[in-house]
């Protein structure tokens, strides 16, 4: 059974203000991105459940059996985004290939859709020209060969991981933000990305086109290395039933193997994510160097990066910049109180550790931070792109006030990401991914509380869209405006009141529900 409406608001038993009612009507037609993926057997909150009288939050969320199989990952997810910045929709980077040909085939801002093949993988050699080899983790038994460059990959990766016929994708753009979600039902994989661009959308667009394929390719190499290891040879034939990927099988095996193997394997997966970002960075800066004579502004374009890879009870996260992933849990040991755990690092000058590292790395530069920004230009300390704060040749391409006059000892912005592998527990409920615009208005605790209460009152509701609705209401109130008045302000001018905002909410679920997920086509 495929649901036509994956998410709807059940407001029949709840009174709402007239402004909130107007917001519900508005949000369906004004969000730049709004998609959902809902599993057939999803059992979410029921308004009649009394979870104060001994009812497990796992039963409420329908994830009480998630530990029973390695092949499940989530029950449902929703994504939403709204713009505040004005930006050109399709710039001419890579001779127009990205904006005119690839992105239109990838974007699906209102629903998940099946993709027959990967349009970016088949054309990657047209603009992938960097010759550097990403660094791999030498201690890993699954070390990726430093001599293999991504552009040497076959145009159609033959790996059983995320085979083309199984892939569903959704995503789009909101201002300078980009969002993507890619799901392989049969292998139980979910990959989500939020790319919060700045000084333009070119870097975020580039990530939307290349990073997913980078990840798939390096996981493909990892899978091939796994095939050469003896750790899988002793598995019984019954354990192979229904498994279409050596990588999926290895994730199952890691669950039951010794701690050393499990940690080493997961380090290999995290290394794939890091290597994929490094390759994208190399390719992007190479493209910038080729085109900066015609478009010198490209040297200042950058993006924060947040990537989440979910498989069963394994949650792997990578981030650069100040986007966040926040895990909501309800530990039984804490009497069922809701807990918010930030799984990402905040790479900005607001983080004392990042600030101190930046100053320590430039002991002979007295003007590292000016006006609470790096060289008076940027608040984030780690980011994709933004070449002029990393290499002198890019800074020299700028003229006048745009150029950094005292770029003494670059780089001032780093590209080394934070990575984390989290083993989901029985009391983990959902994960919220958001660009920093969301957290300009809500704390981690407020975000998870809003989602938790909303899902309780609206079992089939769309929590990502709800968070953005609440943000607009709060932004309007702080500006002494109504939500309608705020939304009438055109993008560009509206940046005064809120940033571009992108949100993904993943409700964690069990294997059976993931295997027969409904897809909006």
UniProtKB/TrEMBL annotation:
Catalysed reactions listed for this entry: O-phospho-L-threonyl-[protein] + H2O = L-threonyl-[protein] + phosphate; O-phospho-L-seryl-[protein] + H2O = L-seryl-[protein] + phosphate
EC number: 3.1.3.16
PROSITE patterns to which the protein is assigned, alphabetical: PPM_2
Cofactor(s) listed in the protein's UniProt record: Mg(2+); Mn(2+)
Matches recorded under SUPFAM superfamilies: PP2C-like (SSF81606)
GO molecular function: metal ion binding; protein serine/threonine phosphatase activity
InterPro entries the record matches: PP2C, PPM-type-like_dom_sf, PPM-type_phosphatase-like_dom
Domain PPM-type phosphatase: 162-508
Pfam family, one: PP2C
Keyword Manganese applies: yes
SMART domains: PP2Cc
The entry's keywords: Hydrolase, Magnesium, Manganese, Metal-binding, Protein phosphatase
Family that this chain belongs to: Belongs to the PP2C family.
Protein name: protein-serine/threonine phosphatase
């Amino acid at each position: 059974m495929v649901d036509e409406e994956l998410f709807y608001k059940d407001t029949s038993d709840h009174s709402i203000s007239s402004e909130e009612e107007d917001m519900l009507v508005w949000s369906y037609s004004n969000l730049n991105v709004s998609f959902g993926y809902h599993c057939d057997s999803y059992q979410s909150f029921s308004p009649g459940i009394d979870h104060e009288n001994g009812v497990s939050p796992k039963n409420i969320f329908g994830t009480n059996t998630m530990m029973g199989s390695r092949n499940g990952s989530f029950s449902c997810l929703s994504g939403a985004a709204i713009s505040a910045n004005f930006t050109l929709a399709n710039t001419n980077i890579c001779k127009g290939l990205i904006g005119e040909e690839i992105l239109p085939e990838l974007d699906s801002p209102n629903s998940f859709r099946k993709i027959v093949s990967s349009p970016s993988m088949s054309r990657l050699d047209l603009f992938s020209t960097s010759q550097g080899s990403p660094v791999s983790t030498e201690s890993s038994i699954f070390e990726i060969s430093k001599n293999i460059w991504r552009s040497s990959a076959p145009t159609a990766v033959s790996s059983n991981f995320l085979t083309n016929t199984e892939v569903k994708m959704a995503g789009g753009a909101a201002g300078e933000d980009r969002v993507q979600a890619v799901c392989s039902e049969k292998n139980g994989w979910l990959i989500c990305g939020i790319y919060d661009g700045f000084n333009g959308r070119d870097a975020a667009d580039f990530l939307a086109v290349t990073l997913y394929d980078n990840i798939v390719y390096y996981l493909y190499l990892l899978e091939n290395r796994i095939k050469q290891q003896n750790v899988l040879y002793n598995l019984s034939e019954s354990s192979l039933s229904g498994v279409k990927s050596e990588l999926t099988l290895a994730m199952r095996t890691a669950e039951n193997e010794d701690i050393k193997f499990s940690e080493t394997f997961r380090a290999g997966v995290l290394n794939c994510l890091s290597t994929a970002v490094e390759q994208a960075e190399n390719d992007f800066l190479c493209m910038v160097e080729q085109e900066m004579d015609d478009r010198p502004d490209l040297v200042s374009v950058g993006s924060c990066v947040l990537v989440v890879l979910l498989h069963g009870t394994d949650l792997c996260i990578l981030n650069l910049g100040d986007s966040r992933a926040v895990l909501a849990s309800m530990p039984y040991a804490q009497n069922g109180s809701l807990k918010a755990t930030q799984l990402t690092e905040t790479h900005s000058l607001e983080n004392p550790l990042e600030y101190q590292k930046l100053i320590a790395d430039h002991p002979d530069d007295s003007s590292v931070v000016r006006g609470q920004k790096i060289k008076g230009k940027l608040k984030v300390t780690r980011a994709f792109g933004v070449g002029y704060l990393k290499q002198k040749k890019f800074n020299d391409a700028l003229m006048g006030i745009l150029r950094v006059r005292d770029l003494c000892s670059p780089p001032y912005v780093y590209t080394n990401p934070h990575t984390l592998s989290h083993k989901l527990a029985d009391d983990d409920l959902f994960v919220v991914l958001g660009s920093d615009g969301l957290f300009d208005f809500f704390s981690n605790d407020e975000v998870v509380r809003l989602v938790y209460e909303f899902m309780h009152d609206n079992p089939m509701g769309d929590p990502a869209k709800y968070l953005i609705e609440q943000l607009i209401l709060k932004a309007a109130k702080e500006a002494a405006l109504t939500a309608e008045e705020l939304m009438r302000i055109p993008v560009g001018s509206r940046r005064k009141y809120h940033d571009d905002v992108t949100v993904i909410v993943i409700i964690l679920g069990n294997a059976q529900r993931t295997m027969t997920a409904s897809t909006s086509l």
